[in-house]
Design goal:
alpha+beta, two-stranded antiparallel sheet, two-stranded parallel ribbon
């Protein structure tokens, strides 16, 4: 993607790790960086799910699911971005993502 000959940086971020790296959006806002951040929000920590599946512990119980799923409370990524003065929108489909817009977090 180029915008007037300047390349746009696209940051792809999983929601599980984004919880711990929210300061990245703050830095983008403070430094006025031209970065499009896309947060893939599946509301779970993928790595712990995979590690548990590889163990011999059997299906995760309620206590384990509570630790590795991040659906409660559900994080509002667009609200978090806007709180940091980063324009943001939500896209539930790839078609919506392709429509574009004037946002820097999605």
């Amino acid at each position: 993607m180029a915008n007037d000959g300047v390349w746009l940086v696209i940051a792809l971020q999983a929601d599980g790790s984004a919880i711990y790296t929210r300061h990245g959006l703050w830095t983008q806002a403070r430094e006025q960086l031209d970065v499009l951040t896309i947060v893939f929000s599946n509301r779970r920590f993928a790595n712990p799910h995979g590690e548990h599946a590889l163990s011999s512990a059997g299906p995760p119980g309620a206590s384990v699911r509570r630790l590795i799923d991040i659906a409660n409370p559900a994080l509002d990524w667009t609200a978090l971005a806007r709180d940091l003065v980063v324009p943001a929108e939500s896209a539930e489909t790839s078609g919506r993502l392709q429509e574009g817009g004037n946002y820097r977090a999605l």
